[in-house]
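#struct-queue
[09:14] JT: dropping the first one here, sequence first, then the structure tokens:
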Amino acid sequence: MGHVIPIFSEEIEIIAQADSVAVTRQPFLAGRSIVSAQNGRAVFTDLMLTNDVTGSSYSLLFTLKNHRHVIIRSISFNSTLGPPSRLVLINSPSLNTESLLEFSQQPDLQLEDLGGNLLLDPHGVQTVLLPATLVVDGEEPKLNNNVPASFQEIDDMIRASFTSLNIDRAGRYRLSFSCCKGLSALSSEFFISVGRPYRLKLAVQPTNTVIGVIISPSPQARLADLAGNWAGSAVFVASVTLSPGSTKDAPLGGSGTLLSYHSTQQTVSSLKGMAVFPGLAIDHAGSDYRLVFSSADLVPVTSDFFDVSGPVGKVHVEWDPSTSDADMTWCACLHDSLLCHRAYCCV
């Protein structure tokens, strides 16, 4: 049995070694691996075994730093993986991607214990979309193909990989990842850009109106990409037609057609990406009318339902108190219609 040499004060270095030649990934000791002896003893207090392979046998080799031929090997021991300690994002989503296109680089994550050893978790990783700016037009963005990513061991690496993720609304975003009841990771900020023009989208819907009265405010159509994002200010020509509503209970006659007043045409050219249709009116009362806007090579858009009511006027009664009741005359005037009594009428 050896004796302690009190005056010994040299540096001692320690390394970990796998006892089995079948272990291809050698262990690593994290922490202070070189310690100076004091009073003949060297104490290692913060060592941690990483790059572990569960169940393998390991030894610790102690070497005098200045005398490499002096080596002491510890007895063999086994090491097990620790509990999940951190979720690490190793691949962030692409920095710039077009709306509805899949990220060219999909997110990849690793789960590690305190020593940095890779772990498997049966529940996988979930992700949530975090807009970096306020939602535009009141339409919530959607992260498509968002299903939990499972941890898998591939080529001696364990990771959870997402596939086919894409976002519909243009804007700046981050992705938040979570697993294991409390562990999380956050991606860097990335941008979703607008796609190419694909269809028309209404910026201003038609509202309920009256026979012959111009629809106000004027309906407006804009370019939009496949996901509905406003798609720039390119010049385009758009037309509007009327989708018939129900006119069976209409009090007045008419063809139920779309009228244009003040030289306004039902086909207009856009200005700064917006096609405005002023001066539109309908000549027949009814409900559930719709306007259909179209442009060449673009998917048309149909407006919300709106109603057209009968004319609104006021009753005006004329009475001459100087005459007898028998000779009293009166008339009631209604806009676009006359209700008369005896020989006198309002005009």
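[09:21] JT: and here's the second one, same format:
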Amino acid sequence: MANIYKNSKLSLTSSGVNTLYTVPANSRAIVKSLLVSEDAGGAAVAKVTLTDSSGTTFVIDNDVDLAANQKEQVFSEPLIMEESEILKINVTSGAADIVVSVLEINREDL
């Protein structure tokens, strides 16, 4: 088993669902933080979802509402993700930078 520390980053300026992180099929993951920052001097609104391996989508935060140049930590506690689950974000208005920090636990020997 290997522990792999990762981060994933997106800079979004238009609406649409974007994949932020996908757990590999041979791993589990612990999401430590998800930071969303408004970066265009206006307001931004984001929606964070988790899609499980069967394709069912669960809302994590439906209204990450940011004023100009504001940032918000979406998670107050770690989020456990299972094999093939997908963390997605949709910035429904404005522009935002997103950074997610993850500990990926690979169940196979290196």
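[09:30] RK: nice, looked through the second one.
[09:31] RK: Strands lie at 2-12, 17-22, 27-38, 44-51, 57-66, 71-73, 79-81, 86-93, 96-106.
[09:31] JT: good to know. The radius of gyration is 14 Å.
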